Amino acid sequence: MKKLKLTSLLLLTLLIFMLAACGGESTASTDVVLATQPTAALEGEAVQPVNTQEIVATEPVFEPTAVPISVTYDNDDLTVSESSAESSADTDTIDLADDTTTFTGDGVVVDGSIVTITMAGTYSISGTLTDGQLVVDTQDEETVTLILNGVNITNTTSAPIYVSNADKTVITLADGTENVVTDGTSYVFPDAETDEPNAAVFSKDDLTINGTGSLIVNANFNNGIASKDDLKITGGLITVNAVNDGIKGRDSIAVLAGDITVNAGGDGLQANNDEDAEKGWISIEGGSVVVTAVLDGIQAETILTISDGNIIVVSGGGSGSTAADSAKGLKAGVDITIDGGTIVVDAADDAIHSNSSITINGGDIIAASADDAVHSDDTLVINGGDLTISQSYEGLESDIIIINEGNIHLVSSDDGINVTSGDTGGGESVAQGKYFEINGGTIVLDAGGDGLDSNGSGTLNGGVVLVNGPTEDRNGALDVNGTLTINGGFLVAVGSAGMAQSPGTDSTQYSVLVTLPSMQPAGSMIHIQSEAGEEVLTYVSSKAFETAVFSSPALENGTTYLVYTGGSSTGTEMDGLYVDGTYTPGTQVSSFTITSMVTGESTGMGGQRGGGGGRP
Question: What is the rounded distance in angstroms from the CA atom of residue 253 to the CA atom of residue 208?
Fold first, then answer.
């Protein structure tokens, strides 16, 4: 079906502005070139993805499972070291200069433009290397702290900063300083079996970045910042421009604070350990993260959690583009949990995607997608937060969808809320074990296809659900293959007549399917009141409609109701629904009397017919 156009670049720029406010020796002596990558577009040109050789798996396929993560920060992760030797007797100094680097202390070895730190401790580093390398290679079981106090390091054949061996390294960005790291388009390795380092800032061990200064990483060969263990960011103004992945922590990435901007030809942030179920996760607890990626924006092999912070992701060129490869905004192999924060995603693929489960407990989420806005293969649970989907193919999609609270506004060119088929159980038309359940919250849908769609069943127990459904007869505002059961809540679902469906008769709350004499234009008002004049519904659809399904605790058995179109109301309007006002009548088009749980029959082929009370 026709997809909606991308929100203008101006709007995205405005959103970004608003959110930004709130082990071994050096390898330079060898000459075996293993790979050459295209130069990164670091001055505003488009960044292209890296073509990588397909790797054939020889081990059994890793099956990740959900393992709860707990992020802990050591004192050296959070404590910003002093910025100069004068302020601390325990700090050694290194003044970088081509072939004339000077230093204090015993833990530094200089070999031309290769500067190697061999002992744990704190080092304040300044100066420039036009083609050199800062190496950390220590056997000490203590932390090495590198205070970048205004450095500019370029290396044309390897990683400018290379942690070859250390128990842990902390890079502190000194206050008020700018630090720049740039590599070349090809690396030289000692032999054909070696492929590391592969990032401009590369660590084989745990790496932490903190401080209040800035770090600019220009990665022309492959990745920007990479750790083969855990990577933590607790401060700093960090900009990464990379031809492949921007920031990688194989075991994990934890962001507590800082302002991070990533422009990547591959994934923006990636944790890719696919061998240990307790690793391969990403946690964002604060700070600002702005990602523009050709492939996935933020990708965790296992779990992605977001509890706070300002996050903006544009993947695959945004929702106005077509993704040939995976270009999802937020992606996890096992689980995504969002507890808070402000999140803006513009994706050529799914905006938020998990191969298993997604839980949204809070946060302010704005999403646009050329595919699904929120997709989980198994389970999607929404317990709170504000979710605004300005564009999607399908809005919310999963085998099981449970909405307990939250404010959801979504636009979809196809189905609004879609419970996928999965195994239908031996060819049955109803997918067993697949369902949606709505217990609370406010849900406003503008769907070009089906509004509430389930290949299994559906239940409404509470909340307010407003569906502006399809205008074409081959879709319906409601489309449930099994039974749609309404036990509570407030439902208005307007749309075309060809596939109109009413709730099931096993419901415990009364409902009605109203079929109007003709298609009503967008912006038309429908009003239902009792013969005694008690208003139960006044609603203006954002789209043309011919049928309306209405269910409310206000509907009473044995009561006759009048149906009007047109007119006006003095009530307070929100999302087309008027309350607490006086209605000035338009044209009465029908009436009906409640004599059974469902009044009015389905005219389409989906789901169970309502029956009872005649056709209003």
Answer: 10
| Cα distance between residue 524 and residue 540, in whole Å | 5
Structural contact between residues 568 and 585, judged by C-beta atoms closer than 8 angstroms: no
Q: Which residues contact 124 (CB under 8 A, 6 or more apart)?
A: 82, 83, 84, 85, 91, 92, 93, 94, 147, 149, 174
Token look-up 């946690």 returns 283
Give the mean model confidence (pLDDT) for residues 397-421: 96
Query: What region, left, alpha or beta, does residue 84 occupy, with left being phi > 0 and alpha being psi -120 to 50 degrees?
Result: beta
CA-based nearest residue to 535, from 512, 509, 566, 569:
569
Place of tokens 């002596």: 29
> How many residues make up the chain in this entry?
616
Query: 576-604: per-residue pLDDT in tens?
Result: 999 999 999 999 999 999 999 999 855 44
How is residue 600 written in tokens? 């009015």
Distance CA 547, CA 496 (A): 6
CA distances from 453 to 258, 458, 513 (A): 42, 8, 17
pLDDT(488) > 90: yes
The whole-angstrom separation of Cα 452 and Cα 368 is 19
d(CA 436, CA 430): 13
User: Which tokens belong to 590?
Assistant: 């029908």
pLDDT of 337 > 80? The answer is yes
- Give the residue from 53, 31, 39, 24 showing the smallest Cα distance to 189: 31
Residue 111 CB coordination number (10 Å): 16
Q: Residue 359 pairs with which residues in a beta bridge? A: 337, 381
Residue type, 337: T
Nearest Cα residue to 314 out of 382, 388, 264, 365: 264
Question: Which of 233, 171, 240 is CA-nearest to residue 200?
Answer: 240
208 pLDDT above the threshold of 50: yes
CA distances to 330, 340, 387, 616 from 17, in Å:
21, 20, 20, 52
SS3 content of the chain, % helix, strand, coil (to 5): 5, 45, 50
Residues facing 146 on adjacent strands = 123, 171
DSSP state of 362: S
* Mean pLDDT over the full length of the chain: 87
